[in-house]
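Consider the following assembly input.
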Amino acid sequence: MKSTIKHDCRDELHNAKLRVTPARLGVLAMLEHADMPVDVSMITDYLKKQKIPVNEVTVFRILNTFTDKGITKPIQLNEGKLRYEYANKAKHHHFICEKCKTITDVEGCTVEALERQIEKTSGGKVTRHSLEFFGLCRRCVS
Amino acid sequence: MKSTIKHDCRDELHNAKLRVTPARLGVLAMLEHADMPVDVSMITDYLKKQKIPVNEVTVFRILNTFTDKGITKPIQLNEGKLRYEYANKAKHHHFICEKCKTITDVEGCTVEALERQIEKTSGGKVTRHSLEFFGLCRRCVS
DNA sequence: TTGACAAATGCAAGTAACTTGCATATACTT
DNA sequence: AAGTATATGCAAGTTACTTGCATTTGTCAA
């Protein structure tokens, strides 16, 4: 009996016309398991613990492929490296604690009005924005 | 008779307790001259044209020093490298054309309300945010 | 079930942005 | 004008990421 989660992951790969490999299933499992955007070394470490040793190069390639297929989304948090999360998550932004580096999702975005205003002012078209908040989380603020 | 601009730059360096060198004056001139955030290679190229040949390493160091002293501010536009602009510019965000890469300033920010909301929800403290808009500028949109 | 072939992976090497160590050169102080 | 701290250049190192190429492995058709 296959686990439900694994089956979902297989479907996800089939839908994207990608072959089902241990490395890809492992990356998908990691993304489900994680509660914040993850970077390549976090994924590699996780896979090693799961006894699915995968070369870092392969993880980079898997994430690029997933992103091309719209499965994952790169997140740039000004760390000098990219993180990734599922692309189909509800639209949200991130709040990064500058002390403990915890990343929490921020729901609700009030930026659309500003986008319309930019379009009026500039005569162009705004297709997306990136917005991140930095500060101290509850545990670090005191 | 020294030019006014150059004299301003000298003052800026003196105020920051930094020595006045051709390389630093050149970087400051470039920042004044540019109408969008600039990266290290743009600065290096500009200095070469001005017959102030400066090693890239030195430009990196100058920008780090300026940023430490609060003269410049690093701008991350998800390009895999940093740009810099004067830190004392009025608070603003950027609108990047994904086709021609032109960067224009966006005045007016409606994000403060969202920051207060995050603080209430999370119990933490938001100290800054980064917000960039991507799309097509007027000339590229048609 | 098998065998062929495209696709995925590993390894080594390459790249780009940025940093660091150290020797030399230069700006500022007196 | 000289002494000294600071700035710079050069070479090498680092980190995140990419690429080329040989090998392995999924998948699909027979």
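Chain B touches chain A at residues 76, 78, 95, 97-98, 104, 106, 108-111, 113-115, 117-119, 122-138, 140-141 (CB under 8 Å). Ask yourself how this observation constrains the way the partners meet.
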